Structure formats: structure tokens, C-alpha cells
Sequence to fold (387 residues):
Amino acid sequence: MIPYGKQEITQQDIDGVVEVLQSDFLTQGPKVPEFEQALTRHTGASYALAVNSATSALHLACLALGLGKGDLLWTSPITFVASANCGLYCDAKVDFVDIDPKTYNMCPNKLEQKLIEAKAIGMLPKVVIPVHLCGQPCDMQAIGALAKEYGFKVVEDASHAIGGRYHDEPIGNCAFSDITVFSFHPVKIVTTAEGGAAVTNQKDLADKMSLLRSHGITRDNEKMVGESHGGWFYQQIDLGFNYRMTELQAALGVTQMKRLDDFISARHHLANRYYRKLSDLPLELPYQLENTYSGLHLYVIRLKLDDISSSQREVFEALRAKGIGVNLHYIPVHTQPYYQGLGHREGDFPSSEQYYKEAISLPMFHGMTEQQQDEVVRVLTEILTEK
Ligand SMILES: *Cc1c(COP(=O)(O)O)cnc(C)c1O
Fold:
């Protein structure tokens, strides 16, 4: 089976991890700060916090922004459930803004419309999480302008987008947001096995996330209540978690980050070949928003169902049966049983639901060969053109 995504591990990665295993620190040593430096250097953000997953990073981001009971968080329905769940972890209410049918990202016009309506009834969101789906940057300038006008905070879910650029600046510089979150799960662009990070330019947010990453415990005298009892002393001054990344994971991240540019250009090479080879088929191919460079985590095609005789499910299952490990990103979050239980209804976000009926993610990963890609094209062409 040709998988839809796969990590690339080199001898350099292996050597870096083995070196940590032979060192004094498996956790809380020098590698995590080194990885964080690689992230600030790449993104241009002032602060980076490596954690054990993007899900944890999203949770910390929401907590640092003060999201709590009675507050509202809005995100896109077309995302992994974690982009929405972080709001529920904080006892906030979660709602969604429908996607733009061309970019598949949160639509800024629909966001503005929903903000106008929310303002009229005093129900403005505290946090909005745009998701750079497939690595395509959201229209951050428009979202940032609305954040200023309506007074909400912005967390970019850039789990798909490290290495991408918006208006010629790296994703993660937080020019139009408060915090940006990355995932380093093995199917993503850069991997640490499990892992994530939050980057920000705001010291207070970085400090708060750092405190909550490790139990709410401080060893900093300045932050303590009263006097230190001695060299062993620490205080818990907030309720935090253990969301730390290990040294092994950070070592992998350090060597992976060195190859980020290669990862992205390999993905662009493959995407360009897909564009050329699939352009005559009854498909909607990925559209690129002007003045952006995608991280290209995923290559999503949309079936023009009126022009083909099979259903989406038939095409998907025929591809799988012939060894093409396609996938579907994502099932609209508001249609998940858990979210239905919270009062969300099918029909609420028509562009997202239409996208879900047509989308298929084709295999695309750094080590994919042109022969493998040609096989995907051949099988897909055969399925779509057979009568
Ligand atoms: C993968 C992913 C996450 C969660 O990442 P983890 O590191 O697995 O917690 C969140 N949001 C999006 C959009 C993702 O693709």
C-alpha cells in the first residue's frame, strides 16, 4: 500500500537520538531548548515552547489566553477534532465558521458575517482558531483585522503548515495572531514521533504556557509567594499539566528541522507533478491563495461527482483495493456524535459538508518516488474514466 503520508528518518536523525540515549538527560536537558531555538529561528517568533503534542499546545494556548467557562471558541469544521476540543477542555463553548469552497479554510467573509450577528446578541468569541488546512495559509490579514475590530484572540493551528509562507513571511511569525501551534506527529511535515509546539511574540503568554506545561510549578524566586526554603524549593502557583517533550523527541526535531526546506520542496515537486498529470480528469485540484506558499502537508482532490459514474465511496474503496492508501481529511467536526450531543446539527455548515462529500487525500510524502506517484495517477485515471 502506498501510504498517504510517512515520515523520513535518516542516519542523522538516528545518531541524534542515540546520542541523547547515551547522555545524562532523557528529559529536561539541553535538547528541548535547542529544538525551541530552531523553531524561533525558522519562524521569527520571539518564544517557542515544545510540548508532547499539538493537542497539548492548543490546550495551553487557550488557557494562556484566559479562555474559560462562559467563553466562546470558534474554529473551522474541516479540521482534526483537536482544534475544537481545546475549547471544551477549558469549559468554553465551541462553535464553527464555514469554509471558503475554494481554499477549504475558514472563510473570512463568513467569519465577519457571524461576528456581526454575534455582536448584536452579545455572544462574541474570545478565541478564534483558523486552521491552515493542507498547509495552505488562511487569509490571516483579513482574520487579524477582524480580531482587532471585534476584540478576539487568534491561535493559528499550523499543524499542516510548518515551512509555508504567508505574504513572504514564515508561518509561525504570529504577525496576525497571538499564538501559532505546530504538530510533529509522523504524518506531518516534520516529526518528533509525538510532539507539538506553541510559538508567540508575547512574553506573558510564553511564561504562562511554560508554567502550565510543567504542573504550574516554578523555581523562580520572583514568582514565589514568600521566601524560598533553600536549594530544593519549588512552589506550585497554578494548576498545570505534564505536557513536556522528551529529549529524545527534541533531538529528532533538531535534525528534522535542518531538512525542513528539503521536505517542503520535495512536496512542491510532487504536487506540481500531480497538477500536470491530473488536470484532465473530472477533479477539482488544490487552489492556491494569492501571495502564499503552502507547507503542502496534504494533497486533496475533490471529485466532480456530476461528471463521473461512481460515488466518492466507490472511488475511495477502489483506490484502497488497488494499493493506493488514500485518506479523507476531514469529517466535519460538528457532525461528530460528541458535537451533535452538544447541539450542533448537520446542515449548519453547507460548504464544509459539501467538501466532505467530494474530498480525497492522495498519497504525498517526502520519500515518495515518481514511480509510486505515477502508479497513483494511473490507478486514479483508470477508476475515474471507466464506464
Ligand atoms: C494533527 C493535528 C492536530 C493534533 O496534533 P497532535 O500533535 O497529534 O496532537 C491538531 N490540528 C490539526 C489540524 C492536525 O492536523
Remarks:
- The longest helix spans residues 260-278.
- The chain has a mean pLDDT of 97.
- Residues 46 and 229 are 33 Å apart (CA to CA).
- The pocket of pyridoxal-5'-phosphate is lined by residues 53-55, 79-80, 82-83, 131, 157, 159-160, 183, 185, 196 (CB under 6 Å).
